[in-house]
Every structure is written in structure tokens, then in C-alpha cells.
Amino acid sequence: MNCEIGSIIKLDQKFFERPWTKEMWSNLNFDKTQTNFYYLSKINHSDICVGFSLYLINKAESLAHLLKILVIPNKRGKGISSVQLKNDIKYFQSLFIEKIYLEVSTKNLNAIKFYKKHSFVTLRYTQKFYNNGDDAFVMELPL
Ligand SMILES: CC(C)(COP(=O)(O)OP(=O)(O)OC[C@H]1O[C@@H](n2cnc3c(N)ncnc32)[C@H](O)[C@@H]1OP(=O)(O)O)[C@@H](O)C(=O)NCCC(=O)NCCS
Question: What is the pTM assigned to this prediction?
């Protein structure tokens, strides 16, 4: 399974509690010449699509909003997302992006641990951020 958009959508549906609809995915603007655009970074291992990261870039505000980062369960804990994040950061620095920010469910302890390991700091706690009533931490990483 190569990382074409259909495979990414399948991973999103299979592994995320709140997957996006196909329509939401098909409306994403990946045009890098725009002030606001989505950046999708795909993770292939031996021609298999094992994960991805997705950001909304705002060049005017020098921000990258991390929307989703995922590795399939049997490839987790092997440093794959760490390499991915470091590559994403290099790309953002080339665009003069100054920070990455994100929201993460307070229940997603593995992801919180991952972000803290990569020096993200918690800015605030937002109650009932998600539709199911879950709370979120807002975190950011200055680049
Ligand atoms: C969060 C996620 C992307 C990390 O990917 P990964 O490739 O497994 O991460 P890495 O191997 O590069 O980094 C591992 C670090 O993340 C944290 N971590 C990730 N999974 C963990 C687990 N199962 N148990 C404990 N810590 C974990 C730890 O800090 C770990 O560092 P350590 O090995 O030094 O303890 C992955 O767990 C995932 O896909 N989760 C489901 C999707 C998700 O919740 N995404 C975030 C919200 S969008």
C-alpha cells in the first residue's frame, strides 16, 4: 500500500477516533504558493504506507498547526515518528515557520509523552475541546 491519498484516508479511518470524511480530505488545499496550505508528509517503509503527518501552515503568522500524526500500531516505538517530525521541522525552518502548535486529548498519554520528548511545552488546558467531551492540552514547539 503506497501512500497515495486513498491509503492515508484508510489509515485515518482505521486508527483515529475522530477520522475526517472523504469530503474533508478532498477539500484540502496543498498549494504551497498560498498563504494557508496543508502539508501532508507520508511515511513509506519498503513501499508500504506506515503513517503520515498532516499540518495546516499559516505563512503570514509563521505557524504550523499539527493536525494528525500517525504510525501503524506494529511500527510504533521504533523512532519512526521522531524521524518524521525532525524532517517536518527542517522543512518548516526552510519556510521560516517559527512554531508548531497542536491540540492533544488529555487521555492520549502516549502522544503527550511523544510531544514532551520532542520539547513541546503545554500552553493551556481546554475543557471539552472535542465533540465527545474530552479535554485537550494545547502544546507548542518554538522552532
Ligand atoms: C504518537 C505516535 C505518532 C508516536 O509514533 P512512534 O513512531 O511510535 O514514536 P517514536 O517511536 O518516534 O517515539 C517514541 C516516543 O513516543 C512516546 N511513545 C510513543 N508510543 C508510546 C507507547 N506506546 N508507550 C510509551 N511511550 C510512547 C515515548 O516518549 C517514546 O519515547 P521513548 O521510546 O524514549 O520512551 C504513535 O504512537 C501513534 O501513531 N499514535 C496513534 C495516533 C495518535 O494518537 N497521534 C497523535 C495525535 S494526532
Answer: 0.95
